[in-house]
Amino acid sequence: MPALSSTEDQLKVDVMARRLLDINPYIKINKIDFFIKQELIPQVLNQKLDYVVDAIDSLSPKVFLIVHTLQKEIPLISSMGAGGKMDPMQVKMADISESYNCKLARMIRKRLTKFGIKKGFEVVFSPEAVNKDHVIFVEDEQNKKTTVGTISYMPALFGIMTASQVIRKLSE
Q1: Domains plus CATH for the chain?
Q2: Helix (H) or strand (E) holding 79
Q3: Which pLDDT does position 143 carry in this prediction?
Q4: How far apart are CA 31 and CA 34, in angstroms?
Q5: Is the dihedral of CA 140, 141, 142, 144 positive or negative?
Q6: Which helix (H) or strand (E) holds 124?
Q7: Which residue ranges in the chain fall short of pLDDT 50?
Q8: CA distance 42 to 33
């Protein structure tokens, strides 16, 4: 994860690009730095893509990215909610239809049924219950009513599992 004291006030996209280039200087990176909205998703997906990794935190853009990616028949893996989760042993990977006890996955499934989508892509999720005392109601945040703190290792674990699956699928 790029969140370090030394990367404060820097764009995540720039920090991650530098990190990836340090790992592999020959990698081709197409940085996109904007809040993704429904009308921009076709533009983002209008290129040759081997895989789409969805790690969007906001519900509507996440749903529309999933819908458009599936319509274009691009392989997809989506990261669900890590907020409030603490136990790395409970993190799982499954088809969206098999996810459970994850509020974000439930909301995604509900919205996708309006598009006739009930299955067909993998998600990383944790069925671990979130302590209700850790949920914070927010007023001024775009596309969110609540937020939950996230322990530093959980997003990293979700990312590692996602990357592992993408690499294994592309290697087949």
Answers
A1: 1-33 (no CATH), 36-171 (3.40.50.720)
A2: strand 76-79
A3: 57
A4: 10
A5: negative
A6: strand 122-125
A7: none
A8: 16
What pLDDT score does 98 carry?
98
Long-range contacts (CB closer than 8 Å, 24 or more residues apart) made by 85-91: 85/126, 85/128, 85/130, 85/150, 85/151, 85/154, 86/128, 86/151, 86/154, 87/126, 87/128, 88/153, 88/154, 88/157, 90/126, 90/127, 90/128, 91/124, 91/125, 91/126, 91/154, 91/157, 91/158, 91/161
Task: For residue 141, give both structure tokens.
Answer: 């945040």
Contact 126, 103 (CB under 8 A): no
pLDDT of residue 1: 54
At residue 106, the pLDDT reads: 96
C-alpha neighbours within 13 Å on the C-beta side of residue 50: 9
Instruction: Record the pTM.
Output: 0.84
Structure confidence at residue 170 (pLDDT): 93
